[in-house]
Amino acid sequence: MILSRSRICCAVLVGTAGIAIQFMPAATRAEEPAGTFTTLFNGKDLTGWQGDLTGYEVVDGELRCKKGAGGGLLTTKEFADCVLTFEFRLTPGANNGLAIRAPTTGDPAFEGMELQILDDGHPKYADLQPWQTHGSIYGVVAAARDCLKPAGEWNTEEVTVRGTKEKVDVNGKAIVDADIGPYRDGKATPDGKPHPGLARTQGRIGFLGHGDEVHFRNVRIRELAAAKQP
Q1: What's the whole-model pTM score?
Q2: In 3-state terms, what secondary structure has residue 7?
Q3: First vs last Cα of the chain: how many Å apart?
Q4: According to the model, what pLDDT value does residue 15 have?
Q5: How far apart are CA 131 and CA 142, in angstroms?
Q6: Do residues 98 and 108 lie in contact, with contact meaning Cβ atoms separated by under 8 Å?
Q7: 206-223 tens-digit pLDDT
Q8: Quick one: which H or E segment has residue 62?
Q9: DSSP at 141
């Protein structure tokens, strides 16, 4: 999702979630269960997904958001604290999003959270707000820039969401390490709009298309024990 709310279609997150486990303090790692990663996309069909099933297709083991189509594609299962890893390949100027803790109704960028998936170096995005760049939690937290490979190449992303803490790592670079607690508790968000979804503790994960072709593969998740709330 980017620019105004009158964008092409509903988003299911891509705003920012978490950084890699290796960037977390040892004490935090010790609190997490060993766990194992499970696959969210089986590389064959859309089993386990709901929403705009016609806007996405499976090609050569990849999940592809179709050009000119592709709205919100969400998991049928809800997730709370977790580590999510995936690979993505952008076409020039492509725009998509990652939904986190999203409901099945409403705009996930506000009713849940959306982490940007965006070729933010493309000339058409020269006037982005800081909280619209790739990996940002839309409207809430700005991500560090210059993490993406050129359009057409595969990128890796790891998102960790634990309680109010969110971390995002792209191609080995930490671009978000944030606590959304203050915004959940009433602090004004950078976009100046209400984000009731920040109070959610669980929801669907998914991809939010905006009419651009984007490729995904190796989408995996590891569920974490719930963080202690302050």
Answers
A1: 0.85
A2: coil
A3: 31
A4: 39
A5: 4
A6: no
A7: 999 999 999 999 999 999
A8: strand 62-65
A9: B
